[in-house]
Design a protein that fits this description.
The protein is an alpha/beta fold and 594 residues long. It is built from 18 helices and 20 strands. The longest helix has 23 residues. It is elongated. It starts with a strand and ends in a 30-residue tail after the last helix.
């Protein structure tokens, strides 16, 4: 057996900031070298950030990416880091290695091996995901090369992200070629309970490849996506060896005992990939002799996060990175005293600090005394910046000119509030956070240009029942401080905001249940219809009330135009409103009753 110390750089790149990402590459390679690592592995498309979406269709961007990876190789050598091989993701193009049947110049989701100032090997993602949030057939052509480099007597293969999630391809070829280690740069976005799925997948692919597997995953927020890290190292038998923490940057350093390479030749040869394609294996040698035996470091295995903790951490990271990466200094939101705005304010305080959170209390003639009191109590508990702007006179001024009644009058109140928040945003440069939850967005219980006005929607993918669960969980963490918790001495959310009956308070005595079922009933139905795509017959067969099925489906379908105009928000479920779920606004298809 041969020893090898690998360092997985679980890092947070910024899309499009090639200079800053290259700086981080050098910084974290130096950290790996200082820890005695023999190989450093960065994440998928690290130099460009991921996903770059239509930036990849610009020739200037692709050329900048190619230049950046070559410059990074030279810079590593110039700064004394050229002897540690580095695997890093970037965007390349197919005309660097022309192949039959593919368009000249088509972009590649690529990974490069940097060593001694050179790009000594290049590969590209073979399986291109085209489901859920992914549109990679729009952007890339598939790779058909698998580099295997000999490092200190161990044959190391490189695959990219989706190549683990599909059968055949690089995993099968790595097994055929006898690799001792498979390293996999990833940008695998978060959704609830994905950590269990991910570990099972990595373990299974290691057994299929017959070698140890090192899975390096991106961390950080990028528009609607949150990347949770959770980088993993497993043995050839699929046993967990090391695991990084979630939602935070970490250099995961792990010592492995790996089989010495037995294949004698270099060069290239073709292998049936088991998926109807052929992949060319390209062998190269960096160092043939195994290392002298050394004392290994004990492996690190991060503790498990429960479901509620991981969701809350994802939301905090999403807000923090959206604010930071888009250059905002502060956020602002309307604080009603209800649970949705209370949770949103708390997430913002945990993300960027309460001193950078601004809330506006905007009571109307229908606002209850306890709502204003609950809002003020949250301000006192958290220390956020607050101001009170009564809206009754503003609403009356509109009504004198427009004579609005009923729903129009209710929506007017929401739009006046939205106008106030947007005006303060323009004046002071705050990012406006909207406070709507997934249950409201699904059923159309939001007002265009009112409570939907804003730049980011932290709980957009959070059903109402989960809003309450997150609030109770966060209050139970009072006094604790971490990267995702501010350390409030008392529970940050007033108990009355959690326990009182929800109401928009846009007319006297209004309650959500006047027009919606209880949220535990509604949310189960929404989960089946929105996330599982069940039709009417299937919903009724699953036990949902037929009349409620018909009513809720109609509400959801008619609200598509509203959701299309809602701000982006972090995805935490398998199907969010946005990148995941794309339905036509003009659409006459209706589910029929069974």
């Amino acid at each position: 057996m041969a020893q090898l110390r690998i360092a997985l750089a679980q890092t947070n790149p910024a899309v499009g900031d090639l200079t800053a990402n290259a700086d981080k590459l050098v910084e974290w390679t130096r950290r790996a070298a200082d820890r005695g690592a023999h190989l450093a592995v960065f994440t998928e498309m690290f130099l460009t950030g991921y996903p770059v979406e239509d930036l990849v269709l610009r020739n200037s961007f692709v050329e900048a990416s190619i230049a950046a990876v070559e410059a990074a190789a030279r810079r590593l050598a110039e700064e004394g880091l050229g002897e540690i091989p580095v695997v890093v993701g970037y965007v390349d193009r197919a005309d660097r290695a022309p192949r039959v049947g593919q368009p000249k110049g088509a972009p590649l989701d690529a990974a490069a091996l940097l060593y001694r100032g050179q790009v000594v090997a290049r590969t590209a993602k073979h399986h291109l995901p085209n489901y859920g949030v992914f549109d990679e057939y729009r952007y890339f052509v598939r790779g058909d090369r698998l580099p295997i480099f000999r490092l200190h007597g161990v044959d190391v293969a490189i695959a990219v992200c989706e190549d683990l999630w599909q059968d055949g391809g690089p995993v099968a070829v790595a097994a055929e070629a006898g690799a001792g280690l498979l390293v996999v740069p990833n940008a695998s976005p978060y959704e609830r309970e994905k950590d269990d799925v991910r570990l099972e997948l990595v373990s299974r692919r290691a057994r299929e490849a017959g070698c140890a597997l090192a899975y390096a995953n991106q961390v950080g927020g990028q528009d609607e996506l949150v990347f949770d890290g959770d980088s993993i190292v497993v043995s050839a038998s699929g046993e967990l060896v090391a695991r990084a923490a979630r939602f935070t940057e970490e250099l995961l350093v792990t010592d492995l005992d790996l089989p010495e390479a037995t294949y004698g030749g270099l060069g290239s040869f073709e292998v049936d990939a088991g998926d109807g394609t052929v992949i060319t294996v390209e062998r190269l040698e960096l160092s043939a002799r195994p290392l002298e035996p050394y004392d290994p470091e004990p492996p690190s295995v991060a503790g498990h996060l429960d479901d509620t903790a991981e969701v809350y951490s994802a939301l905090v990271l999403a807000v923090r990175d959206y604010v930071a990466k888009n250059g905002f200094r502060s956020v602002i939101l309307g604080l009603s005293g209800g649970i949705d705005s209370a949770l949103t304010a708390t997430i913002a305080s945990d993300a960027i600090g309460p001193d950078r959170v601004h809330v506006v209390l905007m009571p109307s003639r229908y606002s209850s005394d306890h709502s204003l009191g609950d809002a003020q109590e949250l301000v006192d508990r958290q220390g956020v910046n607050a101001r009170v702007v009564p809206i009754a006179a503003m609403v009356e001024a509109f009504e004198k000119e427009l004579s609005l009644t009923g729903l129009s009058e209710e929506n007017l109140q929401a739009r006046v509030r939205g106008m106030i928040l947007m005006g303060l945003s323009n004046e002071h440069g705050h990012l406006v956070l909207t406070t709507g939850n997934k249950s409201e967005l699904a059923t159309g219980y939001s007002t265009l240009y009112g409570d939907s006005a804003g730049g980011f929607a932290p709980i957009k993918d959070v059903l109402k029942t989960l809003v309450w669960e997150l609030a109770r969980w966060r209050n139970a963490q009072a006094g604790l401080e971490s990267e995702f918790l501010h350390g409030f001495a008392v529970p940050p959310i007033p108990e009355n905001s959690i326990t009182k009956e929800p109401s928009a308070e846009l007319r006297p005595g209004q309650r959500d249940t006047d027009s919606l079922p209880e949220y535990d009933v509604l949310d189960r139905l929404l989960d089946d219809y929105v996330e599982k795509d069940m039709g009417s017959a299937s919903l009724v067969a699953a036990g949902h009330d037929p009349d409620l099925v018909a009513r809720v489906i109609r509400l959801v379908d008619l609200a598509e135009y509203k959701r299309r105009q809602y701000p982006p928000g972090p995805k935490i479920t398998p199907k969010n409103f946005g990148r995941d779920r794309r339905l036509p606004i003009t659409n006459r298809w209706r589910e029929t009753a069974p």
